[in-house]
Write a structure and sequence with these properties.
The chain has 251 residues and is α/β, with parallel strands linked by helices. The chain has 2 domains: 2-25 and 111-241, HAD superfamily/HAD-like (Rossmann fold, 3-Layer(aba) Sandwich); 28-109, DNA polymerase, domain 1 (Orthogonal Bundle). Helix content is 47%, strand content 10%. The protein is built from 11 helices and 6 strands. It has helices at residues 2-10, 27-44, 60-66, 71-81, 88-109, 115-126, 140-146, 159-165, 174-182, 197-205, 222-229; strands at 14-17, 131-134, 155-157, 190-194, 210-214, 233-235. Strands 3-2-1-4-5-6 form a 6-stranded parallel beta sheet, sandwiched between helices. α2 crosses α5 (88-109), α4 (71-81) crosses α5 and α10 runs parallel beside α11. The longest helix is centred in the middle third of the chain and has 22 residues, at 88-109. It is globular and about 55 Å long.
Length: 251
């Protein structure tokens, strides 16, 4: 798998990266902020079915319902999964509370880039491969700057840009397609690197030449789920994309 992954990455002209959970160790902060916001809502307005009153699971529920999606879509999807029919105002309130909690955590504790991601980014920069970051998060620029990797990208399409341009959220491929456009590379010549199921599906639907799924969770079946969603290959560590020596992607 390692040699195959590196060989396939070498064949593309440009690479589009998701941010949270792929480049930066910020997915956990997002998940914990969602958990606090959702659990407070469930306590205040418990579902009628006792079986649906269980707290938000910061791993499984996060991956299934909110990871990679715009905040409002994620909030609505999880609440619906618990049998609730929230009003738009309720969805907005839960999403706003999550936003407040995440921002507070980010400013207090900062965020780090994964070492394997930093190594891959520098290797691709040395190879002069155009790079873009794409994220539904409005905090993507702040997160990448805090992790000291923002300057490694030629383009960034974040939640702020998505809102400005009216781009729909994943699994619609619009976010990734805009990133590829800014790199002046056809999607068929680009790779997408993504850890979320919605993101893997977006890469497939967008016709990208390679969709790399990143499974850092250790959750049983998560790798298979990424494959089924649209990932061509799944790695546990981005260093797997470097282990085959080649001119385009140094080892």
């Amino acid at each position: 798998m390692t040699a195959q992954a590196a060989d396939r990455l070498r064949a593309v002209r440009a690479v589009v990266f998701d941010t949270d959970g792929v480049l930066t160790d910020s997915a956990r902060a997002h998940a914990m902020a969602w958990k606090a916001a959702f659990d407070a809502r469930l306590r205040a307005h418990p579902p009628e079915d006792p079986a649906q009153r269980r707290p938000f699971d910061a791993t499984e529920d996060y991956l299934r319902y909110v990871d990679g999606k715009p905040r409002l879509d994620g909030a609505a999807a999880f609440l619906a999964s618990r049998g609730l029919r929230p009003s738009p105002a309720t969805v907005e309130a839960v999403a706003a509370e999550k936003e407040r909690l995440f921002t507070e955590r980010l400013r207090e504790r900062g965020v780090d880039a994964f070492p394997d991601a930093v190594r891959l980014l520098h290797a691709l920069r040395r190879a002069r491969t155009p790079l873009a970051a794409a994220s539904a998060s409005r905090h993507a620029r702040e997160v990448l700057a805090a992790a000291r990797v923002l300057d490694l990208f030629d383009a960034l399409v974040d939640g702020v840009e998505a809102a400005r341009l009216g781009l729909p959220g994943k699994p619609d491929p619009a976010l990734f397609l805009e990133a590829a456009r800014r790199l002046a590379a056809p999607p068929a010549d680009c790779a997408v690197v993504e850890d979320a199921l919605a993101g893997a599906e977006a890469g497939r639907r967008g016709g990208f030449g390679l969709v790399v799924g990143v499974n850092r969770t250790g959750v049983p079946g998560a790798g298979g789920a990424l494959h089924r969603a649209g990932a061509d290959i799944v790695v546990h560590d981005l260093a797997e994309l470097l282990d085959a020596p080649c001119e385009g992607v140094p080892s």
